[in-house]
Amino acid sequence: MAQAVRSKGLDLARVVAAALDELDDVGLDAISLRGVARRLDVQAPALYWYVSNKRALLEQTATELWRTPIRAVTVTDGDAIPPWPELIGEYMRRLRASLLSRRDGARAASSAVIVDDALLREIEPTLARFSAQGIAPDQLVDLFQTAQHATVGFCINEQHRTTEPVDVAERAKRLADTPHVAAMGELVVGDADARFARMTDLIIAAGHATLDGDASAQRASS
């Protein structure tokens, strides 16, 4: 079996790439090891050299969706490090683009964990640099986790909204007797890019409230 797998030029990267293409074609609910194997022109047991079951396949697939966003906001020891608000905004934008690039991408990423230790190790210099600036790693991780969950949820809604697009202006006319409610239309169902930008700004503002508040408390107690 090992020789047959090698003769096909199979490796984990090819398996994950095939899984992403299969996700595009059949969706998250229908993806299977058998379908991915068929795409690679091998038997399903050949994939067990790389993924032990469907859950492991989905975790590898989700990790690939996170790879570019994470690398976009990590630095090496010698790099200049941007301010954390800039990194969080960039992470959210890159993550949204990655999730929307694949059918059911947001759902695929929503319940999986990163399983590439090498990718996780790439985060260490960034956390260390911020820690040296007085921002505790747990604070930064909490902020990025909040940003990540908000982005994934937003993208799930984008990819799986089942209603027809809303005519915001026509809706506002119907609700003219309740002007505050009428004004909600653009905020709730208006342009997705604008809504995502506002959500990003809110999360960064919350981060400022947390980090700036902690810094003020530390100065007051010293």
UniProtKB/TrEMBL annotation:
GO molecular function, one term: DNA binding
GO biological process annotation, one example: response to antibiotic
DNA-binding region location: 32-51
Keywords: DNA-binding, Repressor, Transcription, Transcription regulation
Domain (HTH tetR-type) ranges: 9-69
TM segment ranges: none
InterPro entries: DNA-bd_HTH_TetR-type_CS (IPR023772), Homeodomain-like_sf (IPR009057), HTH_TetR (IPR001647), Repressor_TetR_C (IPR004111), Tet_transcr_reg_TetR (IPR003012), Tet_transcr_reg_TetR-rel_C_sf (IPR036271)
Name of the molecule in the record: Putative TetR family transcriptional regulator
Lineage: Bacteria, Bacillati, Actinomycetota, Actinomycetes, Mycobacteriales
